[in-house]
Amino acid sequence: MAVETELKFRVATRNLKSLANWRIPGGKMGELSNSDLVSTYFDTGKHKLKRSGLTLRVRQNGKANVQTIKSANGAEFGRGEWEAETRSDVPDLREADDTPLEPLASRKLRRKLKPVFKTSVHRTTVPVRTSKSEIELAIDRGRIVAGHRASPIEELELELKSGRPADLFRIARAIERRSGAELDLRTKSDRGYGLARGSEEQVVFAAPIGLDADMTASEAFRVIARATVRHFSANADAVRNLEPEGVHQMRVGLRRLRAAISLFSKVLPHAGTRAVKRELKWLTGELAPAREIDVFITEQVEPITRDRALSRGGKAIKDEFDDKRARALARAKRAVSSERFRALLVDTLEWIEAKPAPEAAHADVPIGKYAADVLRHRTRKARKQGQHLDRLSPRARHKLRIRIKKIRYAVDFFEELFPAKRERRRLKRLSSHLKKIQDALGALNDFVAHRKMAVASALHAPRKNRRARALAAGVVVGREDKAVKPLMKIALKEARRLQAT
Questions:
Q1: What span, in angstroms and rounded, lies between the C-alpha atoms of 19 and 23?
Q2: How far apart are CA 204 and CA 342, in angstroms?
Q3: Using one digit for the tens of pLDDT, what is the confidence trace for 122-167?
Q4: What is the DSSP string of 435-487?
Q5: Which residue pairs from 208-213 have beta carbons closer than 8 angstroms and sit at least 24 positions apart in sequence?
Q6: Measured between alpha carbons, how far is 277 from 282 in angstroms, rounded to an integer?
Q7: Is-contact 158 168, C-beta < 8 A?
Q8: Residues 307, 312, 316, 319: is their CA dihedral positive or negative?
Q9: How many Cβ atoms sit within 10 Å of the Cβ of residue 111?
């Protein structure tokens, strides 16, 4: 088995060609080579291999056919890769022995395998040598085809053949600054499967996280953190397309990563953590107005526009906030189109892959023990704070909501580590209580923001429709005020029922 240690970037066509001849600072460029590669990816109709974390392809490179099996490797930076030459352009499952595909390689699977998508690529390869590392730079131009759908490939890959990951990231930064290259954690197979589903450019949701009980706490953190970076970065195009749900999912991915940093604070190295947190907070803040205004419009204003008595004022408010939402979405687009965002991706991934520092005393603790301790401690603390929830200020309630949300994320992250039925039932109950508290406190938090927006709309309304707008804004505030007590009652009840796993 080989382990690929690589970084992939998408690069604008106008910048891609020049990179092959660019002199990389601190690196000695070797001789260029060119090849044309045609790869066919195989799976079942229900994508069984994809769901098992595997890809199977047969690549034609000149006269040779090479079968490749790949799997995501949770504990280390890279992917497991198993290659074998084959006589034909279809998979030979006899070559799956001693690979993760072997347990699935039945006659039934062989009958069900079929082409899912194909990539055709012209690849320019350049070896790069530094004083301590050997890196391969590959520039791919071509396309992915799935049925009647096609998408261009304009990528640059850096693969660490030997040496230090630090050199890989140093060269990655130099290329990002020179060409505007953006780190893309999606593989060609991710894009191909998305294209086959007809959803390559759509909003991306969080994928399940599989942890192994044999992992250490630091290994588990890297698995979780990589998944969260993939989640938020994969929504960059949706944000650039001004899709509110794309903004929401990017924020969810960012919150999950920030929650993981908090949950694993005893594991992480001090070096670099503060800078990463600062940049994640910056990006979250750039996205926040678009999400807040969108929720206000969809949950509060639009229902009023359908009320005959309030429609005039409601439509006036909607027009005002539609314009504000458009400006907020444009702000989010500028953020994810910036050099700062591109640097954030590279810096965050390098920080994730850094080995634990000597002062990280809990880094080698088994993840099962670490997870149980985290859940127990945080749930007990949240239950204690929730006893007096009805007496907390809005700011204190907001902080408690964030703590509750982190515990919910912890349950999602750690769920696979508790396979026993009794443990699963307890986690399910805990998650249910947490969700009800989070939803109630989230609504209360939204009310504070909605009140400010509604009141500002009424106070600063132009003369036209001023009274109608004030009436509609008053109804928004009144309806939310009426909902406060029932929501507080739910949150208080569920907080008192919390029990640590």
A1: 8
A2: 19
A3: 999 999 999 899 999 999 999 999 999 999 999 999 999 999 999 9
A4: HHHHHHHHHHHHHHHHHHHHHHHHHT--STTHHHHHHHHHHHHHHHHHHHHHH
A5: 209/412, 209/413, 209/416, 210/53, 210/74, 210/416, 211/74, 211/367, 211/413, 211/414, 211/416, 211/417, 212/74, 212/75, 212/367, 213/366, 213/367, 213/368, 213/417
A6: 9
A7: yes
A8: positive
A9: 9
53: left (phi over 0), alpha (psi -120 to 50) or beta: left
Burial pattern 306-338, b for ≥16 Cβ within 10 A else e, equals: eeeebeebbbbbbebbeebbeebbeebbebbee
Q: Is 361 left (phi over 0), alpha (psi -120 to 50) or beta?
A: alpha
Q: Which residues pair with 60 in a beta bridge?
A: 38, 65
d(CA 184, CA 154): 11
What amino acid occupies position 363? A
For residues 71 and 217, the answer to whether their CB atoms sit within 8 Å is no
pLDDT tens for residues 454-483?
A: 888 888 878 777 888 788 888 888 877 788
List pLDDT tens digits, range 12-35: 888 887 777 778 888 888 999 999
- Quick one: 75 exposed, middle or buried, by C-beta within 10 A (0-12, 13-18, 19+)? middle
For 342-378, what is the HEC assignment? HHHHHHHHHHHHCCCCCCCCCCCCEHHHHHHHHHHHH
Instruction: For residue 341, give Cα distances in angstroms to 18, 180, 205.
Output: 23, 11, 20
CA dist 18 to 32, 180, 415, Å? 13, 13, 47
**Tokens 């890989």, located at residue:** 168
